[in-house]
């Protein structure tokens, strides 16, 4: 099955940086209830004021629901090796072992979340 064509890039997607979204997530993590909802509403309003289409941000906020983007085509083990190499981490270091052995907590001494997304504490 082929992925659907992506919608055209909006102005907002070129004006907002990924760090803005990261900071939003930090704020949302620290907030509860109505404050969290209000923060998200402000972010959406700001996004729409600069370009309208909220779809690019939504794809980053809810990646598990993004069926338009294909998978990397790599197994977790290959991604782990690539991360270790790209980050210049010694393969014997605790961080590298946490990445490479994430499925085997007995080797790293810690349970590390689900998949490679939970590799760092």
TrEMBL record:
InterPro entries: DNA_ligase_ATP-dep_N, DNA_ligase_N_sf, LIG4. It comes from the Eukaryota. GO terms for biological process: DNA recombination; double-strand break repair via nonhomologous end joining; nucleotide-excision repair, DNA gap filling. One of its GO terms (molecular function) is DNA ligase (ATP) activity. Residues 18-96 form the DNA ligase ATP-dependent N-terminal domain. One of its GO terms (cellular component) is DNA ligase IV complex. The keyword Ligase applies. Keywords: Ligase. Pfam families: DNA_ligase_A_N. This is DNA ligase ATP-dependent N-terminal domain-containing protein. It comes from Blyttiomyces helicus.
